[in-house]
Amino acid sequence: MSLISSIAIFFIIWWTTLFVVLPFGVRSQIEEGRVVPGTERGAPAHHHMLRNIIWTTVVASVLFSLFYINYVGGFLTLENIPLLPRPAAG
């Protein structure tokens, strides 16, 4: 796998992981009891973006490592998946 492909796959994993990590630990303004006038009551009181980016990077690094180990080792391939339809030979 080339370096560019590795970076692209890591970026895709990172971006997907970001959307998984974003909702954890978020408290709305209504839960905090401090609604800023002119904003939605359900909007987050604090975004904690730096914490989310750090956790996203950690989780994405672990997932990419697992992907890369599988890619190099060939542990899970299409041939290993049962009940997967195979193309008809020639």
UniProtKB/TrEMBL annotation:
Keyword Transmembrane helix listed: yes
Keywords: Membrane, Transmembrane, Transmembrane helix
Transmembrane segments: 6-26, 53-76
Pfam families: DUF1467 (PF07330)
Protein name per UniProt: DUF1467 family protein
Organism of provenance: Phreatobacter stygius
